[in-house]
Fold each of these.
Amino acid sequence: MTAARTFGELKREGSGAAQGVRDEMRRNLLRKMAAKEPLFPGLLGYQDTVVPRVVNAVLSRHHMILLGLRGQAKSRLLRSLTTLLDPQVPAVAGCEIHDDPFHPLCRRCRDLMAERGDDTPLIWITPDERYVEKLATPDVTIADIIGDVDPIRAARSGQDLGSELTMHYGLLPRAHRGIFALNELPDLAGRIQVGLFNILQEGDVQIKGYPVRLPIDVCLVFTANPEDYTARGKIITPLKDRIGSEIRTHYPATLEQGVAITQQEAWTERGATLRMPRFVREVVEGVAFAARRDKKIDRRSGVSQRLPISALENAVSNAERRALLHGESPVVPRVSDVYASLPSLTGKFELEYEGELMGAENVARELIRESVGEVFSVYLGSADLRPVAAFFEGGGSLRLREEAASEEQLGHLRRVPGLMEHVAALGAAPSDPPPVLVAAAEFVLEGLYAQRKIGRSDERVFQAPERHADDSDAERLERLRRMKKQVN
């Protein structure tokens, strides 16, 4: 059936005035739940925590705010709310605020409908057109959000400045009959936050200079960081009081959830030749988990989920570059490629005082080492690797150059007694191509190094472990050495 193009056609189809947008969202949510349709697809790790609270807020017709640290998919969740809007709704053609033809708000639409009646032209707007998003910054003005007098429009149209036809509509009125999302609400100046009071409480706004209140139909959603770690501002108390639901977001609760999110978001599909070991994915994800609990990193600022996503992409690129240099296939990332992704790690966390002394790169290296040790314990925690450790303790050494071809690396690795016997636990078979075997064998050595059972120099020479009275003393000595180097 062809969509109505005029107001008269719309009425003849039996359509009446549209529901309020929050009633519309509630209706569509109830329909999806009754049909067992997935809610907010693509949001992993939130189904049992955040999603039920969002559902409750929508069912309650609440405006809402998402509180969470950076990189917790707050903006994605807000944008996914458009899935609760109707596929299309009619609006008066040419209207800046998508007026409902049954209840037009702006003077231009009221005059047009009075003049043309059933011949008033319509357009049909989609959910994406009904979603308006703004990043709050300190320079945002009340004119940007609510609106103001437009003297240029008045001059061009010959209208008096007091005429409603000279209104400049801000972003909030332009979200009429839709969703208005405001990211980083604390960054909005307090006097601008005051301008949101009426729409939250009374359901209308007033544009400066006009004695007219516009009953805007909008669902307001906000995001904010719960910790004011940048001292940029805060949400004023009367505004918080008017927001119906406050919903806390969070980072992945388990490594498996984190791996699934990173796998979904990271650009790793570089072609059919890529073979991604599971343990590499887990090492990359483990870096983020280690960073979130590390005392040298500011927990109030958070460690974004973008850290493992960027790190995995960088590790794959490093492996891809090496494979191109040597004409190898498949492309298989190694733990050494995770170390090569340091540029994608160091800018993703804020350091505390001790971390500043050590330097971001040294902190990132420690995080990778910690993650490797934890993943190694899962795969090979009960394996008998004493022959491998004995080789190095007896004076043996092995240098694994990051840029070396896999055939060359594999020849060196086979020299270590018992090493290749353990690659099967990592999903590698003896018949696999050299890049796969090298990635698995290197991980075994990196795991032994992470657990201080063998040593490794900065030039990637595996050797006998350094001996200290105890590990805690060794850690303190290493920290002091790095701190001194950093200061010098």
Note: The radius of gyration is 30 Å.
Amino acid sequence: MKSFWIFEDVNLFSMLCPHKFKAYKSTHAFNKYGKEDYIYFEEDSANKVYLIENGKVKIGYYTEGGEEVVKAILSKGELFGETAILGDEKRDEFAMSLEKTTSICPVGVDTMYDLMRDNRTFSFSVYKLIGFRIKRLERRLELIMFKDAETRVTEFLKELAQEYGYCCPKTGDTVIKHPYTQKDIANLIGTSRPTFNSIMNKFKEAKRIDFSRNEIRLKFSA
């Protein structure tokens, strides 16, 4: 059930952070952020990529009307700002810390190229990750634009099942242990937290799901 491109078992931070390499260790430092601190803004120079040592980071942008659109919420071990690797000179998104003690490993683009050049497996993984995120974002935006809230919740639960789920041998349920809060999920699917809660409770009453704070059990096929 677990997706190949989720880096729980293959932690990019643990493999690529420069402080683990003798040539970079003496000059490398971590950046610390508090809750709702911006790591970078739209239009900032794109000269680094970032690895999350601890905490969670929200990636998004603002529409012309000032509405926030959340593209991704990332956690420990994940990489962001990765389009700098492809040659982007300016950011087209913002990155914001969501926790009080978020620790970020900034990696200059040239250093990242050196690290990836020395490890072809992870070089391939990083490029594949970029493509995967683009496809996932396109799918999510399509759902937000054209589907009702219940459909968006259902499709997101299926996405969570692919990324974080496993089959419970006793019940046959798909068990999802995930890193998101209810607010995180509501932001990701373009709805309000009360609407999301209402739909989840409706699904629970219909015996389609059961859930607690960080666990969801699907009783339908994902």
Note: The two ends are 9 Å apart (CA to CA).
